[in-house]
Amino acid sequence: xxxxxxxxxxxxxxxFVVEASNFLASVLIxxxxxxMVADVTLRYFFNAPITGVNEMMEIAIVAMLYMQVTxxxxxxxxxxxxxxxxxxxxxxxxxxxxxxxxxxxxGMSLMIAVVWVGVPGVREALADNYTxxxxxxxxxxxxxxxxxxxxxxxxxAIEFARAAYQAVRSLxxxxxxxxxxxxxxxxxxx
Length: 190
Hints:
Elements: H1 4-46, H2 53-74, H3 82-91, H4 93-127, E1 131-134, E2 138-141, H5 143-172, H6 182-187
Antiparallel strand pairs: 1-2
């Protein structure tokens, strides 16, 4: 029993990081709404738009995606085509778990590849002072958005690994009576 506590603590810490990232992205959405309203108001009434709003929106949309996508996966709200998967899982829950394992391992591999390529990109953007925007009008450093992408993909890789682990575990313990989803992996203490 003692050995499961660090595992549970790590799981809770990871869940906290995912939820905090999701919350911060939601705050960013609210801030962008206020920025857009202010920009439109200033543009319409005073003919004085806020400089850089388009660039800020482009950057923020990418940041929000990578900050919230892990929560969507964790809650089984990600976009996928369920027609084949659902039909097969109903006929054979074990086959559904095998597919979940394959899809989760593929997703984890893709996220690890993005992190592998992304980390040097963050270092390069920081060292060479890469910027986004129009010089002389509005520019921001590029490395923070690259860092958010690496961070989000790292979280996704871990979440995909949790889903694969839960699917394999349920196959090994012969508990394959219902289809597995990522949210079930979280409830099972993974």
